[in-house]
Design a protein that fits this description.
heterodimer, A: 139 residues, mainly alpha, Helicase, Ruva Protein, domain 3, B: 699 residues, alpha+beta, 4 domains, four-stranded antiparallel β-sheet, flat
Chain lengths: 139, 699
């Protein structure tokens, strides 16, 4: 096994155990963490793209790096960082590409406003054409 | 003899290309020179194309079944250990074979159409409807033959499925991609290809009408089942694909807005618009250009989708192997087909303009708005899919456009659509009377809408993750559509309808309007079923998105977890071995939370390792139910006996696909031939009655 991979695989249970509630009662499976942070971490991992897998979110990806990043998100939440801070951190580290929801800025205007523009143009044109017909009946 | 079957298949593919050239050229020349003999060659030539492509496909299937690894395509996508069903399905499991299958399906559909041409009956009277129809079908087949020619050349020059690996024949094949070894491969791609082929036929039909300079009632009626079947197959292709991903890919999602999914979803959106535009054309004899343009657009977008999937320019989990020459060739085909089609449209469109009379608030307007929104949705998805690509080409850096974006765009558009879907069936064609009855009608819509908003608001406060705008939209949309459908049924069956209908026809005659072509009971039922399917799908999708309960756990034998009224207990870990993989399987029992001795069922998620290529896959375990799915996937091993386990309770998950089945059923019912669509003069007399003289000169 690749040493980095082995390190990551080893790291995963350690981080997961480290951040989980440490009690190990017998018949009850252990939740990895406190529920609200866990839910929040899942939500964040759904809007971030796994840097290794092809077009999968961190949440879906089974790649080791995805597990590590999910643990990272969680520990950042535990440290009291907000969702935006975590996403900014990830963008700084992995680039714009990690964001599944592109930021609203000059170069993404066309992306965000395109559909709205198309809708307004389409519906507007349609209504104008209908009302301007010569054979318009007013009933 | 059998060892040279791949060469025979190859030669037949070449022969079919030559036949396609003749099949396109001769009938078109025949039409130009008014030579009925040449036109009459069209069906026989087309059936010859079909035969040679069919035998060619059989040769490839034979290669798979007999493990002929000297054929590169077989060696790369099959294995002697593979089950027979998958060997056959592997034919369309990758680029070359799926392209051949696509060509085969076009040829099959065309061959069926070729039986409509009966030259013997009609050559005496060249002005007769039958002769004009024969010309129409001959044009249609000629265009289909050109499409086949283009695809064939593409296949022969860039991706020959019969290419050999000689003289070093591999002893064993590389195996079919493990993800594809599923019942989904047998169902999903053929459905999707049949849908694409249906769009190809609509494209050819639209061009045949444009070339003939008319789009008459008979042609509209011929087009109807093709459009509906194409739409039905596309619906099925998308739904099965989504169902497959949900079951097999082990991610727990059901729609990922992946570029390849979008590639088949965009044509579906346009095909849906086309279905409605065709209804408009059929009932009003107007909107012909809209319908024809949508035919051309749907096919163009399906080609664009293939370009996306087969060129490897986008990153996707299920893109075919990347090859830039293929991408360029498809792009060339795309430019040629689309360019030529749009040119013909631009040159011929003015012949087909026909004014129709209707008020601003009428069924016509609502349908038209619906069509516009569907097309806008299609182009928005297209924009999101291509944006990262354009972004990179413009050197702006890299960017991902994923589910959050698409949901933000698509959900509001769907909501608008659903609003229209609710009202449109309740509104009359051409005119709406605002007197007397109208006040009650308006009230009958306003009161339910207020109730719906209240209920939707209440539901959206129940979500675990807090209230959300999307949840509100989804719930309101489903309720609104449901209530409107019930009102539609009431209105259609009610006694008051007859009185209203008499008033309406009076008003129509006062305004000099011709009544629209009557709808059939069949069409009405199909509409109800299709729209009801949309309600079910929206409910399923909304419920899964907002009421899912999940937990990420470390679990080993003897441990349990309560979730949503159930207790899941990890019973044991087991090693499983099949023909193609070995797997570690977790046996997890589902128990009733109230009485945890009562076992309701077992779920067996696996981590599979494939023998042929060592690839590892997580296979989710799902307990399907009408009201909920329980979904368990098995992650990494965390200790000697413990694994990372993801458990989800997904309420109403199966409704997503149940709705699609309803839609398909609606499509099938609408496509089913009735007497209304056979040769009948009464529809044409309606057109001639209209005050705008129809221009229906053929040839």
């Amino acid at each position: 096994m690749n040493p980095i991979l082995r390190f990551l695989v080893l790291l995963l249970p350690i981080t997961l155990c480290g951040i989980g509630i440490p009690c190990l009662s017998v018949a009850q499976a252990q939740p990895i963490s406190s529920l609200s942070h866990q839910q929040q971490a899942m939500d964040i991992s759904k809007v971030l793209r796994c840097p290794m897998a092809t077009n999968q979110s961190l949440f879906e990806s089974q790649a080791p790096i995805a597990h590590e990043l999910k643990a990272q998100i969680f520990s950042m939440l535990e440290q009291g960082q907000s969702q935006d801070e975590i996403i900014d951190f990830m963008v700084q580290r992995y680039g714009e590409k990690i964001r599944y929801q592109p930021e609203f800025k000059a170069s993404t205007f066309a992306l965000w406003l395109g559909p709205l523009l198309l809708l307004v143009l389409g519906v507007g044109l349609c209504l104008v054409l209908i009302t301007r017909r010569k054979t318009q009946t007013t009933i | 003899m059998t060892t040279m079957l791949p060469e025979i298949g190859h030669i037949l593919l070449i022969i079919s290309s030559v036949l396609a050239l003749f099949s396109a050229a001769l009938p078109l020349i025949g039409i130009k020179q008014n030579n009925a003999y040449l036109v009459g060659l069209s069906p026989i030539l087309f059936r010859a194309i079909f035969t040679s492509v069919f035998v060619s496909l059989l040769c490839l299937i034979y290669g798979f079944v007999t493990d002929d690894f000297s054929v590169a395509y077989v060696a790369n996508h099959s294995n002697s250990q593979l089950a027979l069903g998958y060997k056959v399905a592997a034919v369309w499991g990758s680029h070359e074979g799926s392209m051949l299958f696509w060509i085969f399906a076009i040829a099959l559909w065309g061959a069926i159409i070729s039986y409509r041409i009966k030259m013997a009956d009609c050559t005496q009277d060249k002005a007769s409807d039958k002769y004009q129809d024969a010309l129409y079908f001959a044009r249609l087949l000629a265009i289909l033959a050109l499409v086949i020619l283009g695809f064939n050349l593409f296949l022969l020059f860039t991706s020959n499925p019969f290419a050999r690996l000689l003289p070093n024949i591999p002893i064993e094949g590389r195996d079919l991609n493990p993800i594809l070894q599923d019942i989904g491969l047998i169902l999903h791609p053929p459905m999707l290809f049949l849908g694409y082929v249906g769009l190809t036929v609509c494209f050819a039909a639209a061009l045949a009408s444009l070339l003939g300079g008319g789009f008459n009632t008979r042609q509209i009626n011929y087009l109807r089942p093709w459009v509906l079947l194409a739409w039905m197959f596309l619906t099925g292709g998308n739904a099965f694909g989504s169902w497959w991903a949900y079951n097999e890919l082990g991610w727990g999602g059901w729609w990922f807005w992946d570029p390849v999914e979008n590639a088949s979803f965009i044509p579906w959106l346009v095909a849906t618009a086309l279905v409605h535009s065709l209804i408009l054309t059929q009932r009003t004899h107007g909107f012909k250009l809209t319908t024809l343009l949508l035919c051309l657009l749907a096919f163009s977008l399906s080609l664009l989708g293939s370009f996306l999937v087969r060129s490897g320019i986008v990153q996707s989990v299920h893109a075919f192997a990347a090859d830039p020459t293929r991408g360029m060739s498809i792009l060339c085909l795309l430019v040629i087909f689309v360019g030529a089609a749009l040119l013909i449209f631009a040159l011929k469109a003015h012949h087909l303009k026909q004014d129709v009379t209707f008020a601003l608030f009428s069924k016509e307007t609502l349908l038209l708005l619906g069509i516009v929104i569907l097309v806008v949705a299609a182009f928005s998805v297209l924009l999101g899919t291509f944006y990262p690509l354009i972004y990179e080409l413009l050197d702006l850096g890299t960017l991902s456009v994923g589910a959050p974006y698409f949901n933000a765009i698509f959900v509001p558009l769907t909501f608008l659509l659903v609003l229209l879907m609710g009202i449109a069936p309740l509104v009359q064609w051409q005119i709406v009377q605002w007197q007397n009855a109208s006040k009650a009608r308006v009230a009958s819509l306003i009161i339910p809408s207020l109730v719906i908003l209240a209920v939707a608001g209440w539901v959206s406060l129940q979500a675990a993750s807090g209230s959300s705008l999307f949840l509100l939209l989804g719930t309101a949309a489903a309720l609104w559509l449901l209530v409107c459908l019930l009102l539609t049924i009431l209105a259609a069956s009610g006694l008051g309808r007859r009185v209203y209908a008499r008033q309406l026809s009076q008003t129509r005659s006062e305004h000099g309007l011709n009544p629209p072509v009557k709808s059939s009971k069949q069409g009405f039922i199909a509409m109800l079923l299709g729209h009801f399917g949309v309600v079910i799908t929206i409910i399923g999708a909304t419920s899964v998105s907002f009421f899912e309960q999940e937990a990420l756990l470390r679990m080993g034998p003897g441990q349990g977890k309560p979730l949503a009224g159930y207790v899941l207990v990890y019973e044991s870990t087991e090693n499983v071995e099949t023909n193609s993989f070995t797997a570690i399987q977790a046996n997890i029992s589902i128990r009733d939370a109230a009485n945890d001795e009562r076992v309701l069922g077992y779920i067996t998620p696996q981590r599979q390792t494939f023998k042929s290529n060592g690839m590892e896959m997580s296979h989710a375990g799902i307990d399907h139910g009408l009201w909920r799915d329980i979904y368990v996937s098995m992650g990494l091993q965390l200790s000697d006996s413990e694994y990372l386990i993801r458990i989800s309770y997904k309420p109403l998950a199966s409704w997503i696909w149940l709705g699609a089945l309803f839609m398909m059923l609606g499509g099938a019912i609408a496509a089913w031939p009735t007497r209304r669509f056979s040769y009948q003069a009464d529809l044409t007399t309606l057109v001639t009655l209209s005050h705008h003289k129809p221009q229906e000169t053929l040839a």
